[in-house]
Every structure is written in C-alpha cells, then in structure tokens.
Amino acid sequence: MTAAPTLWPQLMRTPFRQRVVEVGGEATRVIEAGEGPPLVLLHGTGGHTEAYLRNLATLSEHFHVVAYDMPGHGFSEGPRRPYTLDVHADHLLGLLDALGMERAHLSGESLGGWVAAWAAARHPERVDRLVLTTPGNVTSKPETMAAVRETTMRAVAQASSETVRARLEWLFAPPNRHLVSDELVAVRLAIYTRPGAIERMRDVLVLQDPDVRARYAWAPEWTGRIRAPTLIIWTSDDPTGTIDEGRLLERWIPGARLVCIDGAGHWPQWETPAEFDRYHLEFLR
Questions:
Q1: DSSP codes, 102-139
Q2: Which partner for 234 in 123, 141, 227, 246 could form a disulfide, CB atoms 3.0-4.6 Å apart?
Q3: What count of other Cβ atoms lies within 10 Å of the Cβ of residue 200?
Q4: Rg (CA), the chain
Q5: Cβ–Cβ under 8 Å, residues 244 and 220
C-alpha cells in the first residue's frame, strides 16, 4: 500500500506562486505554475486548490496552470449570497480577465466541471478546450444531492478531523481511502473552521436544493451550445453516478469524447494522478 501523499512536497521541484487576485472586488486565492497556454483547474463542492497539488508539477511543464478557490470556498472571500452556477461562471470569467487571459483551457472536477461547461456554453469565445472530470450527478438524483448536502454540512457544523476525513473519504474509491492524508484533512479542517464557514457552506450547497438545481440542470438544450473540443473523464467508482451519466454528456456535447479511469472514485486527479495527467496532456496538446 502506498503512503498517503503529503501536500507541498508535490511542488518542491516546481516553481510556483500563491497569491490573492481581486475579482470584482472579491479576494480570490490562486496558485499558479508553469508557462504556455493557460489551463484553469476548478475544484468541486466544498473543495479548494489543494485538490490539484498532485497534478501541478506535470501539467505546468506544458501549460500556465491556474488553480483557484472558487467563490465561497477555500480561503477566497466573497459576500453572503446563493452561489449558483451563474455566479460561479461569472466569477471564472472575471478571473480570466483579472489574469489577462483572453482564452484558456478549462478542466473542472465535480462542481468545477459543471461550472466550466456552463461558462463554455455561454461564452465559447473564452474557452479553448474543455475537460469535465466526474462532473457530478448529471441526472440530479435526489439521494446524491442529499448525500453531498449531509456529509458536507456535518463536516462544517461538527468540524473535526473525523468528520472532515469522512467527507473526503466518501469521494475516494474504497481501496484509495488511505490516500486521504492527515495533512489534507488539516487543510480542509482549517477552511471549515474559519469564521462564517457554516453560513458560507449553506450558500454553496444551494445547488443541492432540487428547486434551485432545476434551473441549471445538465440538459442537451444548453450543453449542445458548447463549441470547445471536450473530454469527459469518468471513473469506475464514482459515488455520484455511473458512467452511463458520462455517456449522456458524450451524446449531448457536440464531438465530446468519454474515457474511464479504473480504480478511482470522485477524485481521480488525486487517486490516480499519472493517468489523469496523461489524459490531459494527450487531449490538450
């Protein structure tokens, strides 16, 4: 069994910087590495930039990689408001503007994939290529929304190493749960115990409300407007849905291609980083 990966040693040989970028007056935490075509990485619900630390070294050899804490998440700041899909997408476009990026590749996991696809459908001129990784409950199953809502709120409202670890382990295929390191738990615990964390998470979880979600639900009417070449990465053990949901997106998004990573759950970028990176390099280059 491989040891749980520690965080910052992932970047010991990679020049990178962490900074705060103002996006529409909101302080947004950003980690950047590499030069070349811009590649923006978007995490999932309740997540943060550290979700991609196992990928920055390889991807930054070919791209200017940007990972950021989405509004209401991580160490980014933002006002109290429902963090709906259009709010996230508008913030993403504002971040591209703030970084001077006219266009970029977008790669999003879970909520991040949903946001990236929504932005690509509405602003095709800003997106070069699109990668959607386990983009999350494509068919809006009530039981999945309930699981995301309940496990996330428990980790914040009853914040402890145990509740945060349980939330993270839910994302992983069972054989990979040893990869949830104490350090990864500590980072998320620090986020979930920040002042106002409970209120912010309630704002984030509005997309797990069936009535709100219905306004943004995956559908061929809007996904059919995506013009960026699209790669969909599914996994064998995704807890939010089977690969049949990936096949729906493959049909709905013009020219999309679906691949499956065996032995991973909802976080293949962390569970199987070499395969995750390889698919990105083959597709984006």
A1: SSEEEEEETHHHHHHHHHHHH-GGGEEEEEEES---TT
A2: 246
A3: 22
A4: 17
A5: no
Domains of the chain, by residue range, sit at 12-284
Taking the CB of residue 267, how many other CB atoms lie within 10 A of it?
Answer: 29
Q: Measure the CA–CA gap between 245 and 248, rounded to whole angstroms.
A: 5
Q: What confidence category does residue 220 fall into, taking pLDDT thresholds of 50, 70 and 90?
A: very high
Q: Given a cut of 90, is residue 278 above it in pLDDT? A: yes
Question: What does the alpha-carbon distance between residue 199 and residue 178 come to, in Å, rounded to a whole number?
Answer: 30
* Cα distances (Å, whole numbers) of residue 88 to 54, 93, 111, 140, 204: 24, 9, 10, 19, 10
Nearest to 123 by CA among 92, 100, 98: 92
How many Cβ atoms are within 10 Å of 284's Cβ, its own excluded? 19
CATH classification (class only), 12-284: alpha beta
Residues 106-161 pLDDT 10s: 999 999 999 999 999 999 999 999 999 999 789 999 999 999 999 999 999 999 99
What is the arithmetic mean of pLDDT over 221-243? 97
pLDDT at 5: 87
Q: Tokens 């291609």, residue?
A: 257
Cα dist from 100 to 19, 96, 97, 103, 201, whole Å? 15, 6, 5, 9, 30
**More confidently predicted of 44 and 11:** 44
Q: Is 13 exposed, middle or buried (0-12, 13-18, 19+ CB in 10 A)?
A: exposed
Contact 223, 121 (CB under 8 A): yes
pTM comes to 0.97
Residue-wise pLDDT tens digits, 176-192: 999 999 999 999 999 99
